[in-house]
Amino acid sequence: MIKDLLEIISCPIEDRDFVISSKKKLEEDGALTIPDFLNKRVVSDLVKEAKSHQHLAFYTKSTHNVYLTPNSQEYAEDHIFNRQIISSKGCITTDQIPNNSHLKTIYKSDIFKNFIANLVNEKALYEYEDPFSSINVHYASEGQELGWHFDNSSFAVTLLLQKPKGGGVFEYVKDVRDSEKADFAFEKVERIVEGTLKPSILEIQPGTLVLFKGKNSMHRVTPTIGDLTRYLVVFAYNSKPGVSLSKSAQKTFYGRIAE
Ligand SMILES: O=C(O)CCC(=O)C(=O)O
Ligand SMILES: [Fe+2]
Description:
By secondary structure, the chain is an alpha+beta fold. It has 7 helices and 11 strands. Helix content is 25%, strand content 22%. The chain has a 7-stranded antiparallel sheet. Strands 5-10-7-8 form a 4-stranded antiparallel sheet, covered by helices on one side.
């Protein structure tokens, strides 16, 4: 049965005071966590659903720099700009998630979209036009990790479904650079990658919603330890309608290209 959004979540996202305090937290910390965003029953339904689709996941193991750009000959091979970082994970896409999934109810809900839009100071938020990019479920099994990086998008919305026995920790350093000013913050980035600048940790439990501004805050997810796979949902929106991920990015991230 397709449930209504308000039967799926257990926090007052239409309440003015809740919105104001959430917004304040996001602005101060660069990240907002809402523990127990989902009802407990819904978390266990979604874990079952994620597990049943795990065999469809497309696995990638890639190296990239922290800026997620191609290397540049402007800098020496061993310069921090060209430093190669490893990321590996599996991923399923919007079209592989059932239409009656709670994930689609949440993602498409006007109440939810308005809540997020309000927090990130956008008038409205729109789905991706391509059939892959709007909702992704990420799988990180033993040893898989997301290396240090800055996001290309100004914000990300995630929902943890299953937490591994060890590792899978979201670490971040707030406001490392100012992307508006083409600021690369080489010295700070190098200290983070070398481990001499200690990051903050985001405490995330299954059912926690996270809104994270990752364009200027450098972050990573440490390798999963143990045989319980980390399941994480990513909800991606655009500030204008009709946006598709480029065909080359579709191929890289999802292993296929939409018709
Ligand atoms: O897995 C996470 O918690 C964060 C994911 C992330 O940083 C990304 O997809 O860019
Ligand atoms: Fe990220």
